[in-house]
Q: What sequence folds into this?
């Protein structure tokens, strides 16, 4: 894996983690991504800080955690599953390592894809109709459906 910054390429790896990919980088150079662990090929998450140190990102009780976004404070959003093949749940991990589940009321699954520096999270959820819908989450309050312009099926970045 590598980072391209103003024409300069920096290669990096995730020692000891196994096959890995990265999803997002913030303005501080922190990177979040996933790696494959165990024989069942479940995904586990990591945060690579600006000094190259790796911290595992794992929602307590989850069998799979996938970080997908990081803001400039190091707050991380992503998805987790409580059982193999189970429903996705969104999460927010704050800069102190505390986890909050993001769950759209009435949804059968919720995913969190992106976070900005104003603590706004975007993602999608599966409604009772089985169709994906986009949402915006700000400090515990959801905006979704017809209140978002063009009623997107998913929102992935801010």
A:
């Amino acid at each position: 894996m590598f980072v391209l910054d103003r024409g300069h390429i920096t290669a990096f790896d995730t020692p000891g983690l196994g096959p890995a990919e990265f999803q997002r980088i913030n303005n501080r150079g922190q990177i979040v991504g996933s790696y494959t662990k165990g024989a069942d090929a479940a995904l586990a998450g990591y945060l690579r800080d600006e000094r190259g140190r790796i911290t595992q990102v794992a929602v307590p009780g989850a069998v799979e955690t996938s970080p997908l976004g990081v803001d400039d404070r190091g707050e991380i959003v992503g998805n987790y599953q409580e059982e193999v093949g189970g429903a996705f749940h969104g999460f927010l991990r704050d800069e102190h390592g505390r986890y909050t589940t993001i769950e759209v009321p009435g949804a059968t699954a919720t995913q969190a894809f992106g976070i900005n520096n104003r603590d706004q999270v975007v993602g999608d959820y599966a409604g009772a109709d089985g169709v994906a819908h986009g949402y915006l989450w700000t400090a515990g309050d959801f905006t979704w459906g017809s209140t978002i312009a063009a009623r997107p099926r998913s929102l992935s970045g801010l």
About this structure: The chain has a mean pLDDT of 83. The CA atoms of residues 65 and 97 lie 14 Å apart. The chain has one domain: 2-147. The domain at 2-147 is CATH 2.120.10.30 (Neuraminidase).
